[in-house]
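Structure (tokenized):
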């Protein structure tokens, strides 16, 4: 039905054509061992896109039928079975293991009941003693005046400090051509942008527990969305957190120190006064009265 020849199947499965023809005819005597024949049959059925499990079951049934045909079982003639019509005793129904198991279960139940009752009795016999003082004693003590205590004031004196420094400040040695060394430790998840000598090296979200080291010749600029999320180590000195939670901080770290860029103010519109021309008053001549 698939328009395939045995030779084409042989090229695909790498199985000899003689074995495939023997499978098609059902000639099991021309095939190798049963295990090899089962493998060839499974591969051939899978290649033809057939139900492999169903065919293997039928193949196994066929092998069993063939074995029964070659080796038929002979019926053995034995003695007839005698039926005992008497009722067996009770000991035949109760086995020894059942008796031992039942006895152990009963002992376990009895031991549990005894333990619970013992715990209840011990709890009922235990009465804690009252350790709180009597109310009358408290009233007597509080009614008595308290003894006055004298306080001696010791004048403060300037004493020279004899404390020795606990630690020695060590100045970090920077590599050649590196004047600024910044180590940023992310404490919380926050936005961060880092520019090294004017080039952006990081622009995104800082991951807590991650260190971000940077080295620069001139300056390192760090912009953070929440200043409490980053801890700064500048040229070997731990500066701590950059600020408070939710505070936007933009710091520039140079060889001279830490600077904060100031925003350039935008030019404001200046109101220009408008002057209106002075109106020119034209004098008018009063009419001269004429006499009659």
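Design, position by position:
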């Amino acid at each position: 039905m698939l328009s395939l020849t045995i030779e084409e199947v042989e090229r695909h499965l790498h199985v000899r054509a003689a074995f495939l023809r023997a499978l098609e005819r059902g000639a099991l005597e021309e095939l190798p061992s049963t295990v090899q024949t089962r493998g060839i049959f499974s591969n051939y059925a899978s290649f033809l896109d057939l139900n492999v499990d169903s065919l293997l079951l039928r193949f196994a049934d066929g092998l069993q039928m063939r074995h029964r045909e070659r080796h038929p079982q002979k019926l053995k003639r034995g003695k007839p079975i005698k039926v005992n019509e008497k009722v067996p005793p009770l000991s035949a129904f109760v086995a020894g293991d059942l008796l031992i198991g039942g006895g152990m279960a009963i002992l376990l139940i009895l031991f549990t009941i005894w333990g619970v009752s013992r715990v209840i009795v011990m709890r009922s016999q235990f009465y804690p003693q009252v350790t709180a003082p009597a109310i009358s004693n408290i009233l007597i003590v509080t009614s008595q005046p308290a003894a006055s205590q004298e306080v001696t004031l010791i004048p403060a004196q300037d004493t020279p400090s004899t404390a020795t420094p606990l630690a020695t400040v060590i100045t970090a040695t920077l590599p050649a051509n590196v004047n600024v060394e910044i180590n940023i430790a992310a404490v919380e998840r926050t936005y961060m942008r880092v520019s090294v000598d004017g080039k952006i090296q990081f622009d995104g979200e800082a991951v807590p527990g991650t260190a971000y080291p940077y080295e620069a010749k001139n300056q390192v600029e760090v912009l953070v969305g929440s200043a409490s999320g980053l801890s700064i180590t500048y040229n070997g000195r731990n500066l701590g957190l950059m600020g408070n939670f939710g505070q936007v901080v933009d710091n520039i770290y140079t060889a001279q120190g830490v600077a904060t860029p100031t925003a350039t103010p935008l030019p404001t519109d200046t109101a220009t006064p408008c002057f209106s021309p002075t109106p020119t008053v034209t004098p008018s001549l009063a009419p001269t009265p004429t006499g009659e």
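Reviewer-requested clarification: The first strand starts at residue 180 and ends at 186. The chain is about 30% helix and 20% strand.
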